């Protein structure tokens, strides 16, 4: 699932912290805010289905080399 680079950074920070299971969406949102990734928190809240799909399919940055910026 393609996400903005700042969203990906927030999701990685939460995952690497080990403080919650990534399936606990509300905890992920709280931790994104705590770690200073408000854009990631708002994205997770606004994109429930894409977030759930990304948990299983993986996330990549929209801004990654070779990815579409449209």
What does this structure look like?
A two-stranded parallel ribbon has the order 1-2. It is mainly alpha-helical and 70 residues long. The chain has four helices and two strands. The relative contact order is 0.26. The radius of gyration is 11 Å and the shape is globular.
In a nutshell, what does this entry contain?
The protein is mainly alpha-helical.
Q: Given the structure, what is the number of helices? A: 4
Secondary structural class: mainly alpha
Q: Please, what is the average pLDDT?
A: 92
Oligomer: single chain
Outline the low-pLDDT stretches: none
What is the helix content?
A: 55-70%
Write the layout of secondary structure elements.
Blueprint: E1 2-3, H1 5-17, H2 25-34, H3 38-46, H4 48-57, E2 60-61
Parallel strand pairs: 1-2
Helix pairs in contact: 1-3, 2-3
């Amino acid at each position: 699932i393609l996400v903005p680079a700042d969203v990906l950074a927030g999701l990685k920070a939460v995952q690497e912290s080990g403080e919650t299971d990534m399936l606990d969406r509300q905890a992920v949102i709280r931790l994104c805010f705590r770690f200073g990734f408000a854009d990631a928190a708002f994205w997770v809240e606004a994109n429930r289905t894409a977030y759930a799909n990304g948990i299983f399919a993986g996330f990549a940055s929209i801004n990654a080399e070779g990815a579409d910026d449209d």
